[in-house]
Amino acid sequence: MHKLIHFLKQANNIVFMTGAGISAESGIPTFREAQTGLWEKFKAEELATPQAFEQDPLLVWKWYQWRRQLIAKNKPNPGHLAITKIQNELKHVTLITQNVDGLHQEAGTRDVIEFHGNIRNNKCSYCSHVENNSDNQSDVIPQCPNCEVNLRPAVVWFGESIPESASQQSMQAASQADLFFSVGTSSRVYPAAGLVELARQNKATIVEINPNATPMTSIADYVFAEPASVALQRIIEVLSLPGDLVNTKSNI
Q1: Most buried by CB count within 10 Å: which residue of 19, 52, 173, 251?
Q2: What is the set of active-site residues?
């Protein structure tokens, strides 16, 4: 652990990439978990597509409103807060998240790269209009003020590309990272999983935090087989120690 803390303090570019696991600790079901209640007969893969929205926009809209209500009931957990603290204490800390719930921003993390968008917003499929949906509880689909078409949740659906800006920023951050944390992600969904590989190719030290083994476990330099909130809080505690107590020769 102390050796990792030394790397943290010395790194010029630190990157965190988070997945569904860190939000699950806040009580938010992962995207691929079985639906409940009125939605138990549907699969996420059947609703989160442009085709589904085109065929039955109201059905898809109601499902996303239900998901938004689930998210609104939950708050950032110690894992989210730990990343914010590390960003506040160290230089050049970049966060890439595959999550769409906005909990990292709620925890105070700055300049979050949202790889898959943000469910709290709506967007137009035809123009650049984006608006916040946080206060909208209605099942009436809002219209784009420019195009007069249905707005949709501002998230990446199955079959869609990652937004160019998020993709470029993420690839640049991964390629320049000295230290890359993969937190709560299965490392099976591409292109996000490829960011770990990119960081590794560019000689970054890789840290994986996940209770379960993933395809990236074997290439990671440090592996914390535990929840993000536990591992990141331990890192914060050691990071707060006086510098002369950090033993750079110790193992994790």
Answers
A1: 19
A2: 116
